[in-house]
Amino acid sequence: MLNRISVAPLYLQVKNKIINDISAGIYTIGAQIPPEAELEKNYSVSRITIRRAITDLVDSGYLIKKQGKGTFVLNHKMKRNLLSLNSYTEYMLRNEEIPRRKIVRLGIIKATSDLSKSLKIDQDAPVLRLARVMTFEVKNKGYEVTYYPIKRFPDLESLITEESSVSQILRSEFHVKGKFNHKVLNLVTLDNGIASLMGLAIGTAAYKLEKITSDASKQPIYYSIMYYDPQKFSFVIDD
C-alpha cells in the first residue's frame, strides 16, 4: 500500500514499489508488467501517476515499452561513474532512494604497512575501521570497509550510527571535504564472509573498488574498499 501522508510523491512510491517487485522476482526479466489500467486499480492512483512512474522506469532502464505488445522488464543494472566523488548516501539520494546501512564492525586498529602508505601515516598508528553492508535495492547489497586516521579525526567513532553519512559528519564536524579520488577496480572472487553479507554464494565474482579520497591539499581523508555485485552494477566513465 502507498503512504499518502508521506513526503514522497505517489509516482515515486509506485516506481519504488515496482523496482522492489522486480528485485524480489515478482516481475522477472523479460516478463510483462500489468497494463496501466490494472496498475491504476492496484495502487488506487490516477493514470497520470502510473504513466509518470512507468516513464521514469523506462528512462532508468528497468522497463522497455514494445509497441502494440506492452511494457516488459529489462535486465537492469545500476550505474556508478568512476570519475564521480559522490558517496553512497549522495548516490542514493540522487537516485531518489533512501540510504540503508548496517554496521558490521566499528573499532580502532593499528595501521598496517599498506594502510600507512595509503593514508600517509605511521605504521601502527591508530585507525578507525568501519565495515558496513550498503543496500542499493532489494537483493542488491554492497559491502564496504573504510579506514580513517584517528589523529586527524578524533572521536569519529562516537559520531557514527547506521543512519549517519560519514561524509556529512566529516564536513560538518571536521570541516573536511573530498577533492580528489584515486580508484582501482578489479574483479575478485568472494570468500564466505563477504559473500554471506552480500547475500551471494561463496566463490561468486564481484567488483572490488579500492579508493583513496584526499582533500584539496591532497592529504588522504580515508581509504575504502567496496564490493559490488557485477550482475547488478555497471561502471561508467563520464567527464
The arrangement of helices and strands along the chain is HHHEEEHEHEEHHEHEEE
What is the CATH architecture assignment of the largest domain?
3-Layer(aba) Sandwich
Strand content: 25-35%
Q: What is the domain tally?
A: 2
Q: Would you report the number of β strands?
A: 10
From the helix content, strand content and strand pairing, which structural class follows?
alpha+beta
**Looking at this structure, what is the CATH superfamily of the largest domain?**
Chorismate lyase-like
Number of distinct helices: 8
Mean pLDDT: 92
Q: Describe the largest sheet.
A: 6 strands, antiparallel
Name the CATH class of the largest domain. Answer: Alpha Beta
Uncertain parts: none
**Largest sheet, order of strands side by side?**
4-5-6-9-8-7
Overall 3D shape: elongated
Cα-based radius of gyration, to the nearest Å:
20 Å
The proportion of residues forming helix, as a percent range, comes to 25-40%
